[in-house]
Design goal:
By secondary structure, the protein is mainly alpha-helical. 94% of the residues lie in helices and 0% in strands. The chain contains two helices and no strands.
Length: 184
């Protein structure tokens, strides 16, 4: 119940009290001289009675207003508590969402790191295999060059020996020819 309804209710109570006060009054006789003196007293008692009733209605209205203020305070406290609860829930939901996004980002970063490591390992493995192959190819070429060098050296050696043998044989034959001509 809001304040304007309570004020209207209080006014209605005062009006009912005044009506009840008027109907409860004893009928007043026509004024006489003596009665004229009493009439203001009756009038004063009537005014006092109405004032007491009005004061009682005022006190009742004050109680209603105080009750309305208390209810308003309670409602404000309830609304505040509800708003605080909603804000807390919204905050908690935002924190949960932020944590979820952080966890997803970390998970993606870990996955990207693992993929990068795997690619680096694959590149290293591939480079190592290429280096090993290049080494083996170079070793084979070097061995072939060595073998070819040895063959050439042996061939040259054999050629030189063969010519030296021919030369020696020629020299021996000439020496025998000279010897046989001179001895004989």
């Amino acid at each position: 119940m809001d304040q304007s309804e309570q004020v209207s209710k209080a006014r209605g109570q005062v009006g009912q009290t005044q009506k009840a006060g008027k109907s409860a009054e004893p009928p007043v006789a026509a004024p006489t001289e003596e009665g004229a003196r009493e009439q203001p007293a009756t009038s004063l008692s009537d005014i006092l009675l109405r004032a007491e009733r009005a004061y009682a209605a005022y006190k009742e209205a004050q109680k209603d207003v105080a009750q309305a203020y208390r209810e308003s305070e309670l409602e404000a406290a309830r609304v505040y508590a509800e708003t605080e609860k909603q804000a807390r829930n919204a905050r908690d939901a935002s924190i949960r969402q932020a944590l979820k996004l952080r966890d997803e980002a970390i998970e993606k970063a870990v996955k990207a790191r693992d993929e990068a490591i795997a690619q680096a390992e694959q590149a290293y493995k591939s480079a190592r295999e290429q280096a090993e192959k290049a080494f083996r190819d170079n070793e084979l070429k070097t061995q072939n060059a060595y073998d070819e060098g040895v063959r050439q050296a042996l061939k040259t050696y054999e050629g030189v020996l063969a010519r030296a043998e021919e030369k020696r044989a020629e020299t021996i034959e000439q020496a025998w020819n000279v010897y046989t001509k001179s001895t004989g």
